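Late entry, written up from scratch paper. The run itself happened at the end of the previous shift, but nothing got recorded in the book at the time, so transcribing now.
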Amino acid sequence: MSLRTGATIAALLLAFVTPVAADGSGDPAAASSSDGEYSDKAGNPTFKIDKDGTVDWYTSVGYIRYTANCMQCHGPDGLGSSFAPSLVDALQNLSYDQFLDTVTNGKKNVSASQDLVMPAFGTNPNVMCYVDAMFVYLRARSDGALGRGNPQKSAAKPAGYAATEDACMG
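Output as recorded:
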């Protein structure tokens, strides 16, 4: 087979490959909602951003809670640092279940060249009460739907949000 024929076959194969969703949880499109919290068709937490840039309440709270609990290691806007990897990049391959497991139980990857340790936050209500919101925020960042910084417009707080938050925080 000539180089030209091989290149033509490769181009044809690429033309028929179905694009894959940008994150490990699949298509981030909101398929349902309950009390202002959106889910994709697989039931994973997801974001909703209106055409005017208004983000759902959970994306907004996710930014605040990410900044308070995760930024010191994972850097501003989830972009990573010298201490921890970019979560914007990681969520392109990481599913919601994998994210939840890592946040809850931590992760340790030690080798001769590096010592990567993510602490377990499973007993920390400041993290676990907002883990879905943080995932939603990072998912929006990972999918390129949300830029850097604090979202400028946010949907109103859902009516039942305060009671849910109070119950979780104890």
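Residues 18-95+133-169 form one domain.
(Scratch paper discarded after transcription.)
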